[in-house]
């Protein structure tokens, strides 16, 4: 992450971060910012402001200019009050993080951050900075609490935590930069990226004798017509209905009700890259769920019995997300 402290070389900032980590090693779900957690430094504008004040002061002393001295002390008092207001703009804020729904790898995780005040004061221009460089700005003026979304890029599958979040402000004059580091006990489950191509589902038909046969959708008694789904065989297309309605449709046979699709690790043996295999299986799970059919999933050491619905889909995607990773 690029340097986020004003006028601070990267190696000095790393030392400061190590020092703050030692002071604040624990993670919480709810954090109240106090003086122990709060830091403040002058910005580039603040340093320039101090240099100008010193030049005016030395010039006024050298030329015995009382008006220059008055201006120096007036501006100095204004800068001092600005420092106090910058510090107080973060002091006594209560911050907690909310629950976040799973996303797919490559998407942005939007962690909900709730900010409330413990005293009757306004807190404008509050900013949150994530480890991946995204900034979210919010204000706490008339209301007692506010919510903002902090975006963090999901660069991999598995569980991802928000890491170190920096809350900072330079209100009101921009002469001082006050900040605090936040670490929360929160994480988001990231599913594999679905493959861009659709893959045909593998069906197993269960007959009355208990035997199973791997085949395509059934070819026995015709029972109706349904909407076309990606992966349906051409010889099952309802061509007459398509010609009449100009909409892709597929013939439905009675044996399809006894068929179960399997998302099987062995079906992707021709793919050597594990992440690509998981991506293909992820796409197959999404396609099976969209078609609202019974499907199960088989991974090395894991078998999920056929079912359907959103809960079943998320269960399968969770196993794909955590495959080969610590839970």
Describe the fold and architecture:
- It is elongated and about 105 Å long.
- It has 327 residues and is α+β, with helices and mostly antiparallel strands.
- The chain has helices spanning 10-23, 44-62, 66-88, 239-245, 274-291, 310-321; strands at residues 30-32, 39-42, 93-97, 103-104, 108-117, 123-129, 135-140, 145-153, 158-160, 164-169, 176-183, 188-191, 202-206, 212-215, 222-227, 249-253, 259-264, 295-299, 302-307.
- The chain crosses the membrane at residues 38-61, 67-86.
Blueprint (SSEs and pairs):
Blueprint: H1 10-23, E1 30-32, E2 39-42, H2 44-62, H3 66-88, E3 93-97, E4 103-104, E5 108-117, E6 123-129, E7 135-140, E8 145-153, E9 158-160, E10 164-169, E11 176-183, E12 188-191, E13 202-206, E14 212-215, E15 222-227, H4 239-245, E16 249-253, E17 259-264, H5 274-291, E18 295-299, E19 302-307, H6 310-321
Parallel strand pairs: 4-12, 17-18
Antiparallel strand pairs: 1-3, 2-11, 3-5, 5-8, 6-7, 6-10, 9-12, 10-11, 13-14, 13-17, 15-16, 18-19
């Amino acid at each position: 992450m690029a340097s986020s402290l004003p006028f601070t070389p990267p190696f000095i900032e790393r030392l400061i971060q190590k020092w703050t980590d030692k002071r604040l090693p624990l993670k919480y779900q709810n954090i109240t910012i106090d003086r122990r957690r709060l830091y403040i430094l002058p910005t580039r504008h603040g340093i320039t402001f101090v240099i100008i004040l010193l030049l005016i002061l030395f010039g006024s002393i050298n030329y015995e200019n009382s008006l220059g001295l008055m201006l120096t002390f007036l501006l100095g008092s204004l800068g001092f009050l600005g420092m106090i207001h910058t510090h107080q703009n973060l002091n006594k804020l209560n911050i907690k993080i909310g629950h976040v729904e799973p996303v797919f790898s490559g998407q942005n995780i939007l962690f909900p951050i709730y900010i409330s005040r413990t005293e009757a004061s306004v807190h404008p221009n509050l900013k949150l900075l994530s480890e991946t460089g995204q900034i979210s700005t919010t204000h706490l003026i008339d209301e007692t609490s506010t919510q903002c979304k902090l975006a963090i890029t999901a660069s991999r599958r598995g569980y991802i935590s928000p890491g170190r979040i920096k809350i900072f402000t330079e209100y009101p004059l921009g002469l001082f930069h006050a900040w605090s580091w936040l670490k929360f006990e929160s994480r988001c489950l990231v599913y594999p990226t679905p493959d861009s191509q659709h893959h045909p589902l593998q069906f197993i038909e269960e007959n009355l004798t208990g035997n199973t046969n791997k085949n395509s959708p059934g070819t026995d008694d015709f029972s109706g017509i349904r909407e076309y789904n990606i992966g349906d065989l051409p010889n099952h297309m309802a061509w007459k209905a398509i010609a009449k309605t100009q909409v892709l449709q597929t013939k439905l046979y009675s044996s399809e009700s006894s068929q179960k699709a399997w998302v099987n690790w062995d079906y992707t043996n021709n793919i050597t890259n594990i992440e690509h295999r998981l991506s293909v299986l992820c796409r197959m799970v999404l396609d099976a769920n969209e078609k609202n059919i019974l499907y199960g999933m088989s991974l090395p050491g894991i078998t999920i019995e056929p079912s359907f619905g959103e809960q079943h889909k998320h269960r399968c995607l969770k196993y794909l997300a955590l495959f080969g990773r610590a839970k």
